[in-house]
Amino acid sequence: EAGVTQSPTHLIKTRGQQATLRCSPISGHTSVYWYQQALGLGLQFLLWYDEGEERNRGNFPPRFSGRQFPNYSSELNVNALELEDSALYLCASSAYRGENTEAFFGQGTRLTVV
Amino acid sequence: QKEVEQDPGPLSVPEGAIVSLNCTYSNSAFQYFMWYRQYSRKGPELLMYTYSSGNKEDGRFTAQVDKSSKYISLFIRDSQPSDSATYLCAMSTGGFKTIFGAGTRLFVKA
Asked: What is the phi/psi pair of residue A4, to 5°?
């Protein structure tokens, strides 16, 4: 069974540009969670999608947005990139709707803003 | 004060040593306690999952939860170089919101 997959693995963007990150959850999982992992800060919750809807978002500005497609894959968009957006962006999926105590993570997308 | 505190390390031990990793927390409503292992350039993988207080053992790994002290631990027996990774504690009241510690970097020297 394939795990959570993310693309691209690495992304380099210039300040002010837009970045699009993609995630495919484990087959059968309907919930997708996005996290930002900046150096020394641990995982910060960004967004939760379930059944195609945004269910909750963390304490991030509106330029962080996304969507979930009918096949439950998801996209994270970051507009007007700032240098401090440089981080590892992780996607996770869970078999239990609305509960991510046993979450499965992808390998992440390393975003570098220069 | 952060909801979850975790010493970032690094922690360096010789092969075969017993490793103790710890986290403290402030929210008494946390009921679910997890430990994730994250290798360099990889996503976190769930290592141990505990509900409420008590101990849980899985091979060389033991997770302990002391809710009265708001303190959780992960013990690794007979540590191996392959255990070298960052270990993240995580906690939840249930539901979608899981709070992660910043992670402790562990190095096991051969």
From this structure: -75, 130
